[in-house]
UniProtKB/TrEMBL annotation:
Pfam families registered for this protein in UniProt: ApbA, ApbA_C
Superkingdom, taxonomy of origin: Eukaryota
UniProt KW Oxidoreductase keyword: yes
Record-annotated Ketopantoate reductase N-terminal domain positions: 4-175
UniProt key word rRNA-binding: no
UniProt-listed InterPro entries: 6-PGluconate_DH-like_C_sf, 6PGD_dom2, Ketopantoate_reductase, KPA_reductase, KPR_N, NAD(P)-bd_dom_sf
Endpoints of the signal sequence: none
Entry-linked PANTHER family: 2-DEHYDROPANTOATE 2-REDUCTASE, 2-DEHYDROPANTOATE 2-REDUCTASE-RELATED
Name used for this protein in its record: 6-phosphogluconate dehydrogenase C-terminal domain-like protein
Amino acid sequence: MRFHTIGLGPIGSLITHHLKSSIGLTDTVTIIRRNNRQAREFGELFGNTIRVEHHGVPSVSTGYFCQIPNPTHSHSRVAQESPEDVIDSLIVTMKTYHTFPMMRMLSSRLTSASTIVLLQTGMGMYEELVQRIFHDPRERPNFILATSTHKAYTNNDLADIVHTHTGELAFGIVPNETNKDFDAGFHDESVPLFDRKGRLSDIVSSPSDPYYNRFKTLRETVETLLKMKPLNPSWKSIPEIQTNLRRNLALRSVVDPLTALLNCRNGQLLHSPSFRTITRRVTNEASRTFAAEIDAHLNMANSSDEDDEDRDWHASLPQKLKPLSLEEDVLKYVLDTKGHISPMLADIRGGKPTEILNLNGHLIKMASQYRLYVPWTAQLLELVQTRSAIPLDQML
């Protein structure tokens, strides 16, 4: 099995490190870098090694291959350590604004028998990939959507990571055109409710299965993710993963923009009473949007001229997506990460693009589909885009 990863940020390095520790002796892990300079940097400066420190105890993984997206187009020895071939399993943790160009370059190496794991900030990347690259469902790779509540930061160098908070690595399998029920184990009524879980046999059972070649890498990817015990992996039904993604979208659409604008750590937001007001406004807008989305999918949307204020926006919402729950999520997240610098603030400080379009921008796009107005969410987006255009260290 040939695993490939793209994205060597703190979480990407953490995932790659534990992936390498979980695979079989004949499996390989290849790290794809965006250009020859980055590939040489990882190989020559860091010796194809990732170091992770957790609770003061270091662990090292090595033996990685490293290449650029189209290694045969390069004369770099480092970039060609692993031959260009079909990718069995690809784990994507890179910034969303780099993902589409990278996936377009890799698309010729991905087939319907490949598996892609998306573990990124915000939402919208899966939809963009299937609309703009993998149009044909019959030729589309298998997709896994994942979320992580782990916290880590880069210590001194690219491949030197400190794992500061142990959370959960949750993932679910996106349905495809075969109508195969990957989530069958989660609603098997012959099993007690609290014992229901995902089953590898529901993906593919044996070489005699007519879908064996199509789903072999999907099964092996799920099996490998479940072996990454230090990351507390959890296979969840796709509706539960979709709920997790929306919860994360709402809280990050509050915390990341505010910390980027105020140039402060997460916990410092609690010093201002206005933070609670802004949180309540944005999470209410997010909850209304999620409710409209669910109603539309259930064909329950009210198409009459009934006034928006009179509609029961949250009747069909899971409890976790209701306004008060989302507001509590934000406050808990800020407390749990009070000493952390948000990724968006780090991007602003580094003069890099932010992922605001996959956070607030995605919420705005969702809301517009249901003719909802989300002014607080939109205002934060506009302010971050303005902030991005003005260097933080600009002399006055």
